[in-house]
Write a structure and sequence with these properties.
mainly alpha, Arc Repressor Mutant, subunit A, 2 domains, 6 helices, 46% helix, elongated, Tscrpt_reg_Rrf2, DNA-binding, TR_Rrf2-type_CS
C-alpha cells in the first residue's frame, strides 16, 4: 500500500499540474482543495523541492509550482521519490534492494520471483502514466468488489 504521505504528495502534484503555467499556487489553496493538513503538506512540498520537481517562492505573491512540465513526470517517478521504490518487498527493489530477514536464499525464493514480476508490471504501468495525462475516474462501487 502507498503511505498517506505518498498519496498526499500525488494529490498535491496533481493540483500543481492542473495549475501548471499559471504562476505560484499558495500552500493553503492546495491544502484546502486536496484535504491535506497544511503542516504535513509543507514537509511534502519541501521534499519534492529538494528533488527538483517543485519550486517555490516566499512572500505575499509566493507559492509553489512545478519546476518540470507535467508531461515529464510519471506516477512512477513520484512514488519512487516518496517511497524509494515501487517494490512491495525489499529484496525485489531495484533502487533500495535489501535481503529479506528470515527468508530463503534469494535464488530459491518463489515469493521474491513473484514480487519481481509484480514490481516490473507496476513499473510498466506507473512509468507509462504522466502527470499531464487525464485519468478516468472509477465509480466508488467498483472499488468495493476488489
Amino acid at each position: 500500500m502507498l503511505s498517506q504521505k505518498t498519496r498526499y504528495a500525488i494529490r498535491a502534484m496533481q493540483h500543481l499540474a492542473d495549475n501548471f503555467g499559471q504562476g505560484p499556487v499558495q500552500l493553503a489553496q492546495i491544502a484546502e482543495a486536496q484535504n491535506i493538513p497544511a503542516k504535513f503538506l509543507t514537509t511534502i512540498l519541501s521534499e519534492l523541492t529538494r528533488f527538483g520537481i517543485v519550486d517555490s517562492q516566499r512572500g505575499k505573491d509566493g507559492g509553489y509550482w512545478l519546476a518540470v512540465p507535467p508531461i515529464d513526470i510519471t506516477y512512477g517517478d513520484l512514488i519512487r521519490i516518496m517511497r524509494g521504490s515501487l517494490a512491495l518487498v525489499p529484496c525485489a527493489s531495484r533502487f533500495a534492494h535489501e535481503k529479506c530477514k528470515n527468508c530463503l536464499e534469494e535464488g530459491d525464493c518463489r515469493t521474491r520471483a513473484l514480487m519481481l514480476e509484480v514490481r516490473d508490471r507496476t513499473a510498466d504501468l506507473l512509468d507509462g502514466v504522466r502527470l499531464s495525462d487525464k485519468i478516468e475516474l472509477v465509480p466508488a462501487q467498483a472499488d468495493e468488489e476488489a
